[in-house]
Amino acid sequence: xxxxxxxxxxxxxxxxxxxxxxxxxxxxxxxxxxxxxxxxxxxxxxxxxxxxxxxxxxxxxxxxxxxxxxxxxxxxxxxxxxxxxxxxxxxxxxxxxxxxxxxxxxxxxxxxxxxxxxxxxxxxxxxxxxxxxxxxxxxxxxxxxxxxxxxxxxxxxxxxxxxxxxxxxxxxxxxxxxxxxxxxxxxxxxxxxxxxxxxxxxxxxxxxxxxxxxxxxxxxxxxxxxxxxxxxxxxxxxxxxxxxxxxxxxxxxxxxxxxxxxxxxxxxxxxxxxxxxxxxxxxxxxxxxxxxxxxxxxxxxxxxxxxxxxxxxxxxxxxxxxxxxxxxxxxxxxxxxxxxxxxxxxxxxxxxxxxxxxxxxxxxxxxxxxxxxxxxxxxxxxxxxxxxxxxxxxxxxxxxxxxxxxxxxxxxxxxxxxxxxxxxxxxxxxxxxxxxxxxxxxxxxxxxxxxxxxxxxxxxxxxxxxxxxxxxxxxxxxxxxxxxxxxxxxxxxxxxxxxx
Length: 500
Fold this sequence. Notes:
- The chain is of the alpha+beta class.
- It folds into four domains: 61-164, Trypsin-like serine proteases (Thrombin, subunit H, Beta Barrel), CATH 2.40.10.10; 178-289, Thrombin, subunit H (Beta Barrel), CATH 2.40.10; 301-389, PDZ domain (Pdz3 Domain), CATH 2.30.42; 402-499, Pdz3 Domain (Roll), CATH 2.30.42.
- The radius of gyration is 30 Å and the shape is globular.
- The relative contact order is 0.09.
- Residues 24-44, 80-105 and 217-224 have low confidence and may be disordered.
């Protein structure tokens, strides 16, 4: 009995020593302890289904739908003898004597991007910068079929382009109302970054109404830039090659066209920007109906209200679009003629609240000449409702006729009446400015650059864009047309000749 008790006591002491030793070593090693759980978590969150039940959030069905409607676009510019890829403003002193750029031979160049099929008959939306200046545009579908595309129309002011391939019954995406999208909403971005086809990334809408001054940033007049920027900002990864791709909601509805990134490296750094679908649909409708974009103008200069402006101007509101003036459109300003005054703060357009200048630009950018807009302004603390009939850039309520666009389509030039202040600086009495150069004979066979002010055609002075359009339209196929003109900061005359 005594021996048995000794054995029990020894066992107890041994167990205690074992527990103490194990605890000591576990404590020493707990920093490298590895645990394994049954199944890794694969879902990013939870949502509610149609029945109201909480279910794991899943992107697979949406991704499968949208990837079939996003295409890969490859644009090719054929080799040609042309001027250096510099604007006249950046030329060195030697080039002043030899015209805008010394001719040099260069080979074919290629660029790539993405596009979104928006119609089963082959209509595709992409960015203007994806196809600008291209001689050949190739589209590759999700199933690797490849087709040449025709450029239906472009709009540099929104960086949008509409192209078409000759195919039917294609998968496509439908537009949804981008106004109803909300900050924090889940979105997917689809495109072809780094030539990696059909890449899907997920994120949320980080902000709306962003103006980052990236479209036509070099094209400025006394009234500022004509670009329309009111981007949807997202943290879904967007990289080079995503341009022209789709930003969609979780139902697969098209919320926007991915356009730009904010990055110090050129690759994704957390910020991507998409053109809202409400702007895209308006541009597409104009290009299909009129052949060119119909732009309605209030005819004002605006800036966003901020705390400094509130103090400086003693404003009664903290948000809105401040009317700082009328610029070179003062005589043609629809807003001024309707009664809007310098110093007014526009706080509402129709039933849409306006919190910044980019919000105003986006809303008016969806309108056409002749459209009426109810403008609510805050004037010295009191609100006034003013009805404004929008005009075009020339001060008329008429739409630009399709035939006028067709008349210059072969040349690929977009014209506008020269700003009177620009004419004064150049010391010339009249002229027509080349606002943009697209894929046409002017860019292929001459050294003409954007910003060129046409003073005469075939040695006959010209005053308006409409007049130049009429002259070009009267030319027969194969007939030579000669442009005379100047560039800002380059006083000498430049002459370009091209056959129609």
